[in-house]
Design brief:
The complex is a heterodimer of chains A (about 300) and B (about 250). Chain A has helices spanning about 1-10, 60-75, 110-120, 120-140, 195-210, 225-235, 240-250, 255-280, 285-310, and strands at about 15-20, 25-35, 40-45, 50-55, 85-95, 95-105, 140-145, 150-155, 160-165, 170. Chain A is α+β, with helices and mostly antiparallel strands and about 300 residues long. Chain A has 2 domains: about 1-105, Phosphorylase Kinase, domain 1; about 110-260, Transferase(Phosphotransferase) domain 1 (Transferase(Phosphotransferase), domain 1, Orthogonal Bundle). Chain A has a 6-stranded antiparallel β-sheet with strand order 1-2-3-4-6-5, covered by helices on one side. Chain A has a two-stranded antiparallel ribbon with strand order 7-10. A two-stranded antiparallel ribbon of chain A has the order 8-9. The longest helix of chain A has 28 residues, at about 255-280. Chain B has helices spanning about 25-30, 55-65, 75-105, 115-130, 150-165, 200, 215-245, and strands at about 5-15, 35-45, 65-70, 135-140, 170-180, 185-190. A 6-stranded mixed β-sheet of chain B has the order 3-2-1-4-5-6, sandwiched between helices. Chain B is globular, with a radius of gyration of 19 Å. Chain B has a single domain, classed as von Willebrand factor, type A domain (Rossmann fold, 3-Layer(aba) Sandwich). Chain B has 7 helices and 6 strands; from the N terminus they run E-H-E-H-E-H-H-E-H-E-E-H-H. Helix content of chain B is about 45%, strand content about 20%. The longest helix of chain B has about 30 residues, at about 215-245. Classes of the chains: A alpha+beta (about 300), B alpha/beta (about 250). Chain B: It comes from Lentibacillus salicampi. Chain B: This is VWA domain-containing protein.
């Protein structure tokens, strides 16, 4: 498939002016931002404003994507995808017409790049942010589908992870429109390709595994065992391990349920880590034990009190 | 609107036909009877992306109204699905375009419509693609050179059934291989809603020397006809069953 898509990439020289056939808006192409499953994305400028322009020969698929962007734009309360600015056709020559749409240009860096630079403490924060957005999306009746690292970007000030390509977004209950094998639970033999919240939650875990296995890994003869071993081998994911495992096995029905568990695990984990540093400084033998006991108590209190919360 | 059934032949091959009638002709014949012919050409690892021998792949799909794609075997799974789904969309869009022409005049097609309205039309196409019933007859080349590719073909087909069975509409698959022992093609798996059962059958496939692609397609069309009779009878029964529920 990959070769087929690569051939569909469209090369437009920087400086080219694209004028829409229907709305007559003029866009100046600045540079290529990347190739998607369908078509290519360029940075463009119109009246001093930047935008990301996606262009493809495939009018059908582009229309489907635009439909998704429009629907996401109607979801109240959070900005799920980039906002849509224009949809049009470009008649490059007499017999070649391309479809394009212009969306908000999100400038940031990759999830793994950001985490490497700013530290692994951010991993949990991004997990919570993403689960919150996923919950909104699922509530609105959609599943992200092609949830993968390449479709995420981290904006700075304040750090916030955003989705940039919503092409695979599918209505709940239908067949997943677009997926990438490594992130697909069907490929791992751990579920169907029906669009349901748990499909996204599986891919969500794979996004975070991908950070620690940038080259990814093969599924081997026993895909499930491989997956769990890889998860348990990552020291930095230790705190989240049980939640992530539960998501891989499809045992979460909703993002909010997973988010709740994750938050719980994070609140518990933070204290022992800090105390560990302090006890190092003190360098005494008994104190850590006593303190450890106190922390256990505190943890127990947190654990119990969490049950009282609605 | 009554939901129809899309009929497809999925031909998986790695070379040229060398026996019997021109496969482009039998593919055209299939198209005339409402059956789309899609072709996937598997490349050997040392082959370039544009080998001469595989020109036939594109020709068959063109006259069969379907989609064709050349791939290395590593990418087979995803390609099988892309080709099948693309062909579905293409067929459905063909229907919709015909309807549009009737409503808006002969010059209208989806590209002629302004982007805002295009969205609504595509929603209809998507809905149809999700809910229509689909019948796929898989026709696998088992000539000698395919031998080491068959395990990959098997995996790709199981994966295809996983993807298609996530749809709301019903699916039916069957698998034939060609050349058959005595005939041009041979049944591997009869019409069934899932393909999980093929794991046990596939290793038994033996590979032969000739490649009668043309006759095999003709034979495949006949298989749709045969089953069609039975299905019509069953479909007539169905409304009665539903009414009984009230």
């Amino acid at each position: 498939m990959n070769q087929a898509w690569k051939k569909q990439g469209i090369n437009i020289r920087p400086g080219t002016v694209i004028t829409g056939k229907w709305h007559q808006h003029r866009y100046v192409i600045k540079q290529k931002l990347g190739n998607g499953a369908i078509g290519s994305v360029y940075l463009c400028e119109r009246n001093g404003h930047y935008g990301a322009l996606k262009i493809s020969e495939n009018a059908t698929s582009m229309t489907v994507e635009v439909n998704v962007l429009k629907s996401l734009g109607k979801v109240q309360g959070s900005r799920l995808g980039p906002s849509l600015m224009d949809v049009d056709d470009w008649e490059a020559s007499r017999n070649s017409t391309y479809s394009f749409y212009v969306m908000e240009y999100l400038r940031g860096e990759s999830l793994s790049g950001f985490i490497k630079k700013r530290g692994h403490e951010w991993t949990g924060i991004f997990m919570l942010q993403l689960l919150e957005d996923l919950e909104h999306l699922h509530q609105a009746g959609w599943v992200f589908g092609d949830f993968k690292s390449e479709n995420l970007i981290v904006l700075s000030h304040p750090p916030k992870v955003r989705w940039i390509d919503v092409g695979g977004t599918t209505q709940i209950g239908r067949a997943i429109k677009e997926y990438t094998e490594f992130y697909d639970r069907g490929y791992w033999g751990l579920g169907s390709r029906k669009a349901e919240p748990s499909y996204d939650l599986f891919a969500f875990v794979m996004v975070f595994l991908n950070i620690y296995y940038p080259k990814r890994f093969e599924k081997g003869t026993s895909p499930k065992a491989t997956l769990l071993k890889k998860l348990y081998d990552v020291r930095q994911l230790r705190v989240y391990r049980e939640c992530l495992k539960k998501a891989l096995l499809g045992n979460y029905q909703s993002s909010s349920e997973m988010r709740h568990d994750l938050l719980h695990a994070m609140n518990h984990a933070r204290r022992p880590v800090r105390s560990h540093n302090r006890s190092d400084r003190r360098d005494s033998g008994k104190a850590p034990l006593a303190e450890g006991g106190g922390i256990m108590l505190a943890a127990l209190f947190y654990y119990l009190s969490s049950f009282m919360l609605p | 609107m009554k939901k129809g059934t899309l009929k497809q032949i999925l031909l998986i091959t790695d070379g040229c036909s060398n026996k019997g009638e021109d496969p482009a002709v039998t593919a055209a014949l299939a198209k005339q009877q409402g059956i789309t012919v899609n072709v996937i050409g598997i490349l050997d690892d040392d082959q370039t992306e544009d080998p001469e021998g595989l020109q036939e792949v594109e020709d068959i799909a063109l006259s069969g109204g379907g989609v064709s794609q050349l791939v290395y075997k590593q990418a087979l799974s995803q390609t099988v699905q892309t080709v099948t789904k693309q062909a579905m969309t293409q067929t459905l869009q063909g229907f919709v375009n015909q309807e549009l022409k009737q409503i808006l005049g002969p010059e209208q097609s989806l590209e002629e419509v302004e982007p805002e309205k295009r969205g609504e039309i595509m929603e209809v196409v998507e809905d149809m693609g999700e809910t229509c019933d689909l019948e796929v007859l898989v026709l696998t080349d088992t000539s000698a050179s395919m031998h080491d590719k068959l395990p990959t073909v098997k995996e790709a087909l199981i994966d295809l059934s996983v993807s298609l069975n996530a749809r709301i509409g019903r699916n039916r698959f069957c698998i034939f291989s060609f050349p058959g022992k005595r005939k041009d093609m041979e049944k591997v798996l009869d019409w069934s809603p899932k393909l999980d059962s093929i794991s046990t059958i596939f290793p038994k496939l033996t590979s032969g020397g000739i490649t009668p692609t043309g006759p095999a397609i003709r034979e495949a069309v006949y298989q749709f006809g045969k089953k069609g009779l039975l299905k019509n009878l069953r479909d007539e029964d169905e409304p009665g069953v539903e009414e009984a529920g009230y």
